[in-house]
Specification:
single chain, mainly alpha, about 80 residues, 5 helices
Length: about 80
């Protein structure tokens, strides 16, 4: 099942996250965590702070998936940093 999820778009995975699909969430996390961390590090220059920022963004994404409409997930996540 996870291989099938790897081929899904961000929008499709977001719909599954709305249904509390942990595998879909893991795919999005794997897809974006490094990019977000790298972007945060360019701004804050502290490893622990950047790790916390990225973690909080993904926690928020999971908790608010049912009441947040995101048209461009990558832009949304980068803006959240």
């Amino acid at each position: 099942m996870k291989n099938y999820l790897l081929q899904m778009s961000d929008e499709e995975l977001q719909k599954l996250i709305f249904e509390e699909n942990h595998d879909a969430f893991a795919i999005l996390f794997d897809r974006y965590w490094k990019k977000l961390y790298t972007y945060a590090f360019k701004i804050y220059k502290e490893e622990e702070i950047c790790e916390d920022i990225v973690q909080e963004i993904f926690i928020s994404l999971w908790k608010n998936s049912g009441n947040t409409i995101i048209l461009n997930l990558e832009a949304y996540l980068l803006r959240a940093v």
